[in-house]
Amino acid sequence: MLTKVAIVGRPNVGKSALFNRLIGRKKAIVHKAPGTTRDRNDCEILWKDKKFIVTDTAGWSADISVFSRDMSRQLDVAIKESDIVLFVVDGKTGVHPMDGEIAHQIRLSRKKPILVANKIDTQAEEVRGYEFYKLGFGDVVFVSASHGRSTHDLLDKIWENIKYDRKVREPREILKIILVGKPNVGKSSFVNAVAKEERSIVCDVPGTTRDSFTVRVQSNGKEYVLTDTAGLHRGSKTKDDMEYLSTLSADYAVEDADVAVLIADASQGIGETEVKIARLLLEKRKPVIVAVNKWDLIEEKEEAAKYFTEQLRERMKFMNWADIIFISAKTGQRLDRIFQEAELVFKQYSKELTKEELSGVIRDALAEKPYASKGKVLKLKEYAQVASKPPVFIFSVNDIELVHFSYKRFLENRLRARFGFYGTPIILKFRKYYKKAAEQ
Q1: What is the pLDDT of residue 212?
Q2: What's the average model confidence in pLDDT over 177-187?
Q3: What is the CATH number of the domain that holds 418?
Q4: Which of 41, 100, 115, 423 is placed for a possible disulfide with 137 were both Cys, Cβ 3.0 to 4.6 Å?
């Protein structure tokens, strides 16, 4: 197992900024409003010859509101599960009474602590940070997460505290699955159900999950990286910068995912928002599974399943290759099947045809349905698969103007009929054929 490193501290000391700096990209939302981070957020890091998992956490709060209690519980669990605790304090404001409470809790946990004074932008400012020594953790690492100052020193400090038996041996490819969908369709409940613990705060208030966060889960004896995202709203509903940042954060996560699971609410059907999200996934060229959640609430299941399938095919014709699975995060119904399907879909996404396989299906397609327009016959002079993830095919033709969208669709359908490619987009590109010198 990999060493787990939890980033903890009171609100607004820069934990998420430090998390982003350590992983090398903007994965967590950074905002001056306290409480921006509400869930634990995991990411795997390779530093020198060792891998470890770093976890961003919600700010420790003495507030007794529902959200603060949930966030504090998340933080307590993160410390319990960690091997090393990065205790982040605000180097500009000095020691805060809450820092002493957190320090006491960390000492009770008996986990390895590393005290990090953030927002120290210059060496001269380190002098002000010496008061943190009275917290009783020995050395203090002075960093500036926003400017990147001394974060490599912090990574070295973490590296020194990782046991050698946790060194990287052989990289393993773990499937990364992202959950997307409008607010309140059950994405966070899905995560909690498969993680078998409350990793994400669940609430009836739409938009509870502001940030994209990842967690490692197991299903069918295999490990997966599962990403929950903030609910995506239609553009007209984006009213403030926090909601915009949430949407942007989800966008970054989509880029990084191997498979996307688009979750819809069984009581609401496939609406405009689901179509918009599906188009986003298509633009990102991601394989997709459509999961209809809250299926336990549906009484006439056979009739409803038929209705949903027809609705999906009608409103998302551009994604008629996506499978639909009816699930219940509440009861656990078919959640394991999502992971089984993700494995199959990713194989389709990664599929590469041999030259002979491609030639056979194209020859049959041309014989079945030659295409002509205005007295000219479309000829496919050369063709090849040039990429996978997603599969990309390039066709050299005698006249690019003869390539009609209906014929593109015909060729795509023939490729899917012969080789599957279910769950994944496939890209067909056409270009003008030019004779090579040897042919002239």
Answers
A1: 64
A2: 87
A3: 3.30.300.20
A4: 115
Let me know if residue 171 belongs to a domain.
no
- At 195-224, the pLDDT tens digits run 876 554 444 434 444 456 788 888 888 999
In a domain, 28, yes or no: yes
Out of 49-53, 229-233, 366-370, 420-424, least confident range: 229-233
Same domain flag for 188 and 323: yes
The answer to whether the beta carbons of residues 87 and 137 sit under 8 Å apart is yes
Average model confidence (pLDDT) across the chain: 82
Domain identity same for 62 and 147: yes
**368 is in which domain, residue-wise?**
355-439
The structural domain count of the chain equals: 3
Is 427 in the same domain as 283? no
Domain boundary among 120, 146, 166: 166
State yes or no: pLDDT of 172 exceeds 60.
no
Q: In this predicted structure, what is the pLDDT of residue 247?
A: 65
Indicate if 155 and 19 belong to the same structural domain: yes
Q: Which residue has the tokens 């809450």?
A: 98
Global confidence as pTM: 0.64
CB contact burial 345-367 (16+ within 10 A = b; e otherwise): bbebbebebeeeebeebbeebbe
Statement to judge: residues 149 and 209 lie in one domain: no
Domain final residue pick, 134, 166, 198: 166
Q: 132 φ, ψ to 5°?
A: -70, -15
Shared domain check, 313 and 395: no
The pLDDT tens digits of the residues spanning 96-143 come to 988 988 888 888 888 899 999 999 999 888 887 888 988 888 889 999
Question: Per-residue confidence at 319, pLDDT binned at 50, 70, 90?
Answer: very high
